Structures are given as structure tokens and as C-alpha cells.
Amino acid sequence: MVRMTFSPDDRAEVAEILRALTLASRLEPGCVTYIPHYLDGDRDTVLIYEQYRDAAAAEEHRHSAHFTQYAVGGLYQKMKDRAREDLVALA
After folding, report:
1. C-alpha span between 28 and 7 (Å, rounded)
2. What's the distance, CA 68 to chain centroid?
3. What pLDDT band is residue 89 in, cutting at 50, 70 and 90?
4. Partner residues linked to 82 by β-bridges
5. How far apart are the first and last CA of the chain?
6. Distance between CA 90 and CA 74 in Å, rounded?
7. pTM for this structure?
8. What's 32's domain CATH number?
9. How many domains are there within the chain?
């Protein structure tokens, strides 16, 4: 899971970047799910729930051309804050 906050002035651009990143990420063979969310009541905070087949697939995602373009070159340039949490499934 990744949580990022953005300026209200960047909402439209962030949404467009997220659409492109989501479409490309979902095409990765190791991607199980990739869903960006706004927090209810806080459209300046984005939470991305992403799940991969295994750690290697997650690592491939972080080194993909589309991640470099849309996340590193787009979202990272706009975000005010970012936190990543790695989850372990219970069942």
C-alpha cells in the first residue's frame, strides 16, 4: 500500500497520471491487483492498494518503464508526502 498527499491544485493532473499508471501496471504479468483510491472526504490523499504475485513481481513493477515515467517522473514530483506499507496476507 502506498499513501501520498498532493496539493489541491494538482488534483486533475494527479488523477490523469494515476489512470495511466494503473492501466500499465494492471498489464504486468505479476500484477494481481492495482487500485488507486481517494480517501473518503480527503481528495488530496491517494491510497494505492497493489498486490503482486510475489516479491520479484513487485520489484519488477518498481523498475518498469511506466513506473519510472508516471510514478517517479510524475507523482513523485507532485507529492507532498509519501508512505509505503508492505502487507502480509493472513489468509
Report:
1. 29
2. 12
3. confident
4. 4
5. 17
6. 33
7. 0.92
8. 3.30.70.100
9. 1
Question: Cβ contacts of residue 41 below 8 Å, gap of 6+?
Answer: none
Cell of 50: 497493489
What does residue 60 show for φ and ψ, rounded to 5 degrees? -60, -40
Q: What is the pLDDT of residue 46?
A: 98
Vertex 85: Cα angle to 31 and 70 (nearest 5): 55
Which residues constitute the domain of residue 15? Answer: 2-84
pLDDT tens readout for residues 8-61:
999 999 999 999 999 999 999 999 999 999 999 999 999 999 999 999 999 999
Query: Can you read off the three cell numbers belonging to residue 1?
Result: 500500500
- Dihedrals φ, ψ of 9, to 5°? -65, -20
Strands across the sheet containing 31-39: 31-39, 42-52, 2-6, 79-84
Residue type, 85: E
